[in-house]
Amino acid sequence: MQTVNDQQQKDGVELIQQIANLHGQLVESHDFAQALQGIRLLQGQTPGAFSSEALEEFENDYRLMADFMLKGFKDPQRNALYGRLVRGMSSLLRNMEVEVERKYDPFFSPLVRLTASTKLDPTGIEQKLVKHVQDVAMLSLDEEQVRQQRSKELYEAHFNFMRNLFNAIVVSSQWNADMAHDMARLLSSPTIDAMDALTLVSAITMATLNVPDPQKAIALTEVFSLADDEAIRQRALVGWVFAVGNDGFALFPEVGERVADLLAKPEVRKEVLQLQKQVVFCQNAARDQETLRNDIMPNIMKNQNFEVSRFGIKEKEEDPMMDILHPDDDRKMEELEASFQKISDMQKRGADIYFGGFSHMKRFSFFYTLCNWFMPFYTEHPQLQHLTQGLLQSNFIKQLMLHGPFCDSDKYSFTLGVSSVFSSLPESLRNMMEQGELQSGMPEGDGPQGKAYIRRKYLQDLYRFAMLNDGRKRFANPFDENHVFLSAPIFTHAMADEARNMQLFLLKQKKFALLSALLQAYYDAQNADDLRMEGCVALHFKQYAKAEKACRQLLRMQPHDEQAIRSLAQACFHQAHFEEAAKHYRAMLALHPDNRNCALYLSVSLLNCGKADEARQMLFKLHYEHPDDLNVKRALAWAELWMKNTQQAYSIYTTLLASDKRVATDSVNAAYCCWFEGRIDEAVRLMAGGMAAYKSAPRQTLTVREQLAADKALLDRYEVDEADRKIMADLVERHREQ
Description:
TPR repeats lie at residues 562-595. It contains 38 helices and 2 strands. By secondary structure, the chain is an all-alpha fold. It has 5 domains: 6-106; 112-264, no CATH class; 285-317 and 328-474, no CATH class; 577-627, no CATH class; 644-738, no CATH class. It starts with 5 loop residues before the first helix and ends with a helix.
């Protein structure tokens, strides 16, 4: 059997990248001759890497067209024919990419060998799938012993066929329109098993994430429109959205037209918006796992009645003294219920709460088979038949299959994992599982028939593959944290309202990079919501001039917009435009007299405007009302320092430095107090400490000279001359080197 060596794999990767670059140039330039020249160059460098029959046919057609033009003939169809050649060249390049993968990629080449005899003939496939349904139905006529053996043989043969068909689709060349239509009709047909349709929809999806194919994407849109089974529709929805979000198929207007027809329906736009939000919840899986591991699971574990020992899992023995010493069992139960409720609430919000636990259970040999990552859970699966039948046939597993809170991939992991310890479980626990008395206790928010529920479980299957499978890098990752599919041009013509809804969602999730990308994709300078969001995003990224511009434009449209006034005040403050910042903070404080932050920023702005007396009075009032607010203390200390009350200022900074929430500026400003009082040695020590604190917070890193330059107004107020500033900078640097 031929294998792919390391050098061939490396050559294959480089060649695929060169082909992809050629395709990108073709999409951008629509230059057929340039692409043709590039392919011929690749052929000369890597002879035998891919076939050239189709290329020669395209080249001949182009030569005829060029010769016809050279002779001076006008052809009204020339532009259309040229466009057809460009699209044909696009498909040819994509096929070359697949061909190189099949030859040189150690992930795909074994799939090719397995599928050598599998033909992608929709009619033949339909016959096999329909016959399987009929054969399974006929099993009920057989005697029990015969039925069991016959069932095992049927499911094994069918699984082998489905595995090879799945692989064949994943590594298939570009489809034509007839193939796409026939496959869509087949997968939407009620005459085949829904589980088969679900599996094959995933195969088409993975094929488009491997090498984009306009007709496969169209096939998925047709399945979405034609299928009656909601689970099939939702898989198809995820498939075509991921396909067109990964590649807009600019050379194939039929894809855009098909997507536009779907997005013209409000209910479809709503589902696409929900899908985008669910993708973000998947991206949050690692963060949610931290919450579970640190905040919830410790409380659950300490209240469980089982313990894990080197001899297995066993029930804890009742200790009669516990009833005397700790009679508060009700409190423990309440804590346990509260912890489970937190998990349930996370799940209802869309969190992928099981990823962390099951991510360590994808190394079973079961998951070496590609299609198993996407196959709906069923106990007849041939690669489960070696498991303990007491578990596999238990009511617990049956309930798990029907109503379990896990995605299909995790159901397989759970079954495989529990089977390995089933015999060592306490007898009472085994009996509960076999009788179906053990429940998950995790209610689902949408119900097993809800669209969002179905879609979420499937997304979790895809997410596990994208994060954990060894071959994941061969496929585009729709869960990339730097990618939001709604920003793809194919969506922007129809989903502006939904995109703005999504922007608010991303703001709540603090996903500012995604928010910025989505905002730019739909940005309208005449839209108040866009201007408001631009100001917010620009403030987050410290683009204060940009934030100021957006807020000013919004206020010209809506003079009393509070968010715009607040953001403009912040933008002016951070650009040291303190006069205007004070004006806007004063306006906000008039609307919200109890807003502590507005009062604090107003007082600091007034300080920097030279209105120290007014600022000081405001700060005294704030300090009286909020004596534990460290930011109020800092502002008051700065006011005292500005008013040349260095002893009062130093007293406050000493308190701040004793806090575990001290910041670098506390040490720097305390150093100024000492410096201005002539305590130079202490000033140097404190200033060096402040500079060291900056170094531990890279986003705030300053040199001592930059710090002194930033505080020029304060140093000027204390009449510190230039020589003293330079000497102080040198003393601090020498102290830090010691």
